[in-house]
Specification:
The protein is an alpha/beta fold. It is about 60% helix and about 5% strand.
């Protein structure tokens, strides 16, 4: 083991490159092997992304555009998982770029190994969504903010504005990063000096320019996605919630951080002698900036929860701890051979543990349990079956599906024709659907939510009340003994009669 440690100490950049390669290979291969159906977030991305809209009814569009771009470039499901890992390691590279001049290359590597203990970057990252997509832009903002304050170069301020702006297109959650960055510039004695330069003002202008198209869309659509955010961040029900909910969010994050803290635990050992010469050049100002990046956003989430009286969601923590590893390394004892070896070993154990649990959760456990697992859903068979049955009844390719995001989205992705989805049978959720075209080309209505498969659900009657209900059928899940009972109906193509022009 010491040979490996010595090799890392001699060539830390090469070791970091090897870490990135291992990370991307393992966490691309695992979901490709064990996710037999795309997860909900990717199905949703494919439903929305193909429309290339400036905004949607739930969240900003950038992650959905990214998924659609990958579909058009490569087509295979494997590449969605690769996209997730490219996003993760891009964030790691940017954190490394900030850490290296402050704590040295070895310290930067250790900082990354520490945060890799978070399941956000491994176990749950393959379900690519807005939480994952925002990671590199948060990391870029952190790097650019530090570089701008330390060096005062215009390019770094522009980069900061662009990073915040693009992060806004990825997820509105970036506000909890932007708020502490602004407050630090206003309150810190050294950072405040930058206000006398064009830099911070230019960063604000760049942010506004980058976000402008989506901001205009939000205004014109009555801030439609905020209704979804409002439904997620529920109001507190009583005074006791003010005492329980905000600390509860921090405790949930602490629980997620346990593997990371275990990787960092060798810093606490006192049975080895620290090197005489610290291998870092971080000054007091650097430490204050990194402390802000490491804990500022999480504290902002907690304060906003208290002030607004709204609940938080544990999975919002994805980008919050990107700089925690660097913060630990900066304040810990200098790294020597034994400590480095122990950190590498602990990281290896935890990394292997996550991979093993992942494989067991999706390849072993479903064989013995009746638990519903979305990534074992029979989406491919359902899509093929709906396409075949619709074509047999109408002689036409399947162009539209009316159904839930999950049922309809799976058919939309896996059916050969890649039909468009009228989400929940509501035009408000899919305003890009031309109902005249839907009527002329026909559609299938699908429901597999456990209701009566022989009765058209009330939600679809307004749009497809004359659909012909068909005998339900059953499709087995991809693994285990579960099966899916599918209710469906056919909305036959109807000729569109053109009106005579007025004379």
């Amino acid at each position: 083991m010491y040979k490996l440690t010595d090799a890392i100490q001699r060539h830390p950049a090469n070791a970091f490159a090897a870490f990135l390669a291992l990370h991307i290979v393992v966490w691309t291969a695992l979901p490709a092997l064990f996710f037999l159906n795309l997860p909900l977030d990717l199905i949703e991305a494919l439903v929305y992304g193909r429309e290339w809209r400036l905004g949607y009814d739930k969240l900003p569009p950038l992650p959905w555009w990214m998924v659609e771009a990958v579909y058009r470039l490569f087509g295979h499901d494997l590449f969605y998982y690769l996209l997730a890992q490219v996003t993760v390691i891009s964030a790691f590279v940017l954190v490394w770029a900030l850490a290296r001049p402050l704590v040295g290359a070895i310290g930067a590597l250790v900082a990354i190994l520490i945060i890799d203990g978070l399941h956000y970057f491994t176990f749950t990252a393959p379900k690519f969504n807005h939480d994952v997509a925002q990671l590199p832009f948060w990391a870029l903002a952190g790097y650019a903010y530090w570089a701008a304050l330390r060096h005062g170069r215009i390019v770094h301020w522009v980069l900061l504005g662009a990073a915040i702006g693009i992060a806004f297109w990825a997820k509105y959650f970036v506000v909890v990063l932007a708020v502490p960055l602004v407050l630090f510039v206003l309150l810190d004695r050294d950072a405040r000096k930058s206000l006398a330069t064009p830099g911070p003002w230019l960063a604000a202008v760049v942010t506004l320019v980058v976000t402008a198209p989506h901001l205009v869309w939000l205004v014109r659509n009555d801030f439609l996605p905020f209704a979804y955010a409002d439904a997620r961040a529920l109001h507190f029900k009583g005074v006791l919630d003010y005492l329980i909910k905000p600390p509860g969010f921090l405790l949930s994050q602490l629980g997620f951080l346990v593997p990371s803290l275990l990787i960092a635990a060798p810093f606490l050992r006192r049975d080895v002698r620290a090197p005489d010469e610290p291998a870092m050049s971080a000054g007091a100002f650097d430490r204050r900036i990194v402390t802000l990046l490491a804990v500022g956003p999480a504290l902002t989430v907690t304060v906003l929860s208290l002030v607004t009286g709204r609940n938080t969601v544990a999975m919002w923590g994805y980008p919050l701890w990107l700089f925690l590893g660097l913060w630990i390394v900066m304040y810990a004892r200098p790294i020597e051979r034994v400590t480095l070896m122990r950190i590498v070993v602990l990281w290896g154990v935890i990394f292997t543990g996550f991979a093993t649990v992942f494989a067991a959760a999706y390849a072993v456990r479903p064989r013995f349990e009746q638990r519903y697992v979305a990534v074992l859903f029979p989406g491919a068979q359902l899509g093929q079956e709906m396409s075949r049955r619709y074509r047999a009844m109408t002689g036409r390719p399947l162009a539209y599906v009316i159904g839930s995001m999950w049922d309809g989205g799976n058919i939309g992705h896996y059916a050969p024709e890649r039909p468009r989805v009228l989400i929940d049978g509501r035009v408000s959720r899919a305003p890009w659907i031309d109902l005249g075209d839907l009527r002329s080309r026909g559609a299938v209505v699908v429901w597999a939510d456990g209701g009566d498969p022989r009765v058209l659900p009330p939600a679809y009657r307004a749009i497809a009340g004359d659909a012909e209900i068909q005998p339900p059928f059953t499709v087995p899940f991809r693994l285990g003994t579960r099966s899916l009972t599918v209710g469906w109906a056919v909305l036959r193509p109807q000729p569109v009669v053109a009106q005579a022009p007025l004379k």
